[in-house]
Amino acid sequence: MKYIYDYVKEKINDSKGGVNSAVIAFVCAFLVTVTIGAGVLAVLHSRNIKEPAQDIADTEPSVTRVPYAEKIVTSDTDESQTGTDNVIVRDDSVGANEAGEADVENQEEEPEAVEVASLPEGNLEYNITSADGDYISFGFAGDILFDPGYAIMNRIRQNGGAISGVIGDSLLSYMRAADIMVVNNEFPYSNGGAPKEGKTFTFRADPSSVSLLGDMGVDLCTIANNHVFDYGESALLDTLTTIDNAGIARVGAGVNIEEASRPVYYTSQSGVRVAIIAATEIERLDNPDTRGATDTSPGVFRCLDITRLCSRIREAKETGAFVIVCIHWGTENQEEIDWWQQKQSVEIVEAGADLIVGGHPHILQKIEYLNGVPVVYSLGNYLFNSKTLDTGLLSVKVHKDGACDLQFIPAVQSGCNVNEATGADRDRVLSHMRAISAGVSIDENGIISK
């Protein structure tokens, strides 16, 4: 409405005191339009639009972001925020006009809001406008590390603080074009706390580096891992606040077990609903360095005892959601899956999960189907160290009918950079994934099928 007001004001000023009939007619038409369209305008908000990636999607997704700690937030957005990466608002409407303007003339042609089941109290849901109304697209990447004392952050500093050029342009295009981009945040954001005594590797990043997530197009961080508690409780709490204030969702840790185990839900304008849950079964000790959340203390969502994870999966399925479980598991630098992965993958599928995406081993592991459910055991490192390692992005499209399209985009981490694999490297990575993924088809484009 502000845009129309400013336009009328400009027209009146241009008349130098003489308001002509055309201006009066315009004002009258404006008043009629406001009367008719008031109900529509009340629900329209400015929205955050990701940077375009022309070779990925013709229409860019829009996601309304809200700090995780705020269960339900409705807010009039400051128009100066439009187009930034940190719009922190909750839009409870589905299919709002993305331009932020009333389209009164074509109201009858707009699709009706889609009815979706309500979530249990306390759950967080993001209403999103997906690039394609028939599905929500997701991107998944492996481990990242922004600790200033390690090689990756030094490379970013050498690059003038920019992520472009450290992550190759084609990979950034995939990441920014996904409706929801997910990475594993393998460290806390804090300037406080103390390193866990006796732990060989402890990581910590300056809170300001969280802006890199926005540059990468990240919408959701999984923080159920064995390093987010490296500097203790205070640093974990700083991490929760830092990610929240950046307008990025998080899953897998929290101020208590209720929050740590809670899914994040995404519902599109056409009613596609997806729930993402994150948990870790590393370390396999009674008193791990990485503390599990309890009813009264902060920590990560531990799932060596898988009871609560299975319960959360079943709860999410009851809402009609397609359930994705992101799990930190396996043995570092071991290509073969271990006994716990074999056991828990079956239990997670039996509980109702529709897709499992794993991490922690720092290398790629196989893909398989269990009772028709795809399990990607490990995506390995993504932007974690200076080693030359095969890696990749997992592209997922979840359709209205529950169908799931998967594509593996091969990449190589090398010299503190990660780039999409091309030529012989691409063929080699895809051939390797086929060789270790018995019973799974991966075509020349990386399309995965049973």
3D structure, described in words:
It is a single chain. The protein is globular and about 50 Å long. With 450 residues, the protein is of the alpha/beta class. Strands 3, 4, 5, 6, 15, 16, 17, 18, 19 and 20 form a ten-stranded mixed beta sheet that branches. The model is unreliable at 1-111 (pLDDT under 50). The chain contains ten helices and 20 strands. It folds into two domains: 2-41; 124-449, Metallo-dependent phosphatases (Purple Acid Phosphatase, chain A, domain 2, 4-Layer Sandwich). The protein is 25% helix and 22% strand. A hairpin with a 4-residue loop joins strand 8 and strand 9.
CATH class of the largest domain: Alpha Beta
Measured between the Cα atoms of the first and last residue, the distance is 51 Å
Instruction: Give the CATH superfamily of the largest domain.
Output: Metallo-dependent phosphatases
State Rg.
Answer: 23 Å
Overall form: globular
Q: In percent, how helical is the residue content? A: 25-40%
User: Might you state the CATH topology name of the largest domain?
Assistant: Purple Acid Phosphatase, chain A, domain 2
Q: What's the main sheet like?
A: 10 strands, mixed
What is the ordering of alpha helices and beta strands? Answer: HHEEEHHEHEHEEHEEEHEHEEEEEEEHEE
The CATH architecture of the largest domain is: 4-Layer Sandwich
Oligomer: single chain
Total domains, how many? Answer: 2
Number of strands: 20
Q: Please state the structural category.
A: alpha/beta
Proportion of beta-strand residues:
15-25%
Q: Low-confidence parts, pLDDT < 50 over ≥5 residues?
A: 1-111
Quick check: average pLDDT?
81
Distinct helical segment count: 10
